[in-house]
Write a structure and sequence with these properties.
Helix content: 40-55%
Number of helices: 5
Mean pLDDT: 88
Strand content: under 5%
Oligomer: single chain
Number of strands: 0
Radius of gyration: 23 Å
Order of helices and strands: HHHHH
Distance between the termini: 30 Å
Shape: rod-shaped
């Protein structure tokens, strides 16, 4: 989150109106709902995790054990269980 001085981006009338409610404090203005993106959608992180999880599920179906998968992917047993027993199909 970056800090922007309101004097540089907002009209004076609007600043005066906002000052009726808050002065001298940091104010967070969230994005509009239409601007939100899912986690990792910009960086590709979500796609990488989905691909990794699909490989884990596939290996489990092919007979690899949960402890083997945990060691291979450096994940906890509980995390592997969540991945292989989830019903998500990414």
């Amino acid at each position: 989150m970056k800090y922007t001085n309101a004097n540089k981006v907002l009209p004076e009338k609007l600043i005066l109106e906002i000052q009726k409610y808050i002065q001298g404090e940091t104010l967070y203005i969230p994005k509009q709902q239409s601007e939100y993106r899912e986690w990792g959608s910009s960086s590709g992180g979500r796609q990488q995790l989905d691909c990794r999880n699909a490989k884990i599920r596939s290996s489990f179906i092919e007979g690899r054990s949960i402890p083997q998968l945990a060691e291979e992917y450096y994940l906890s047993l509980e995390t592997i269980k969540k991945i292989v027993y989830s019903h998500k199909k990414h």
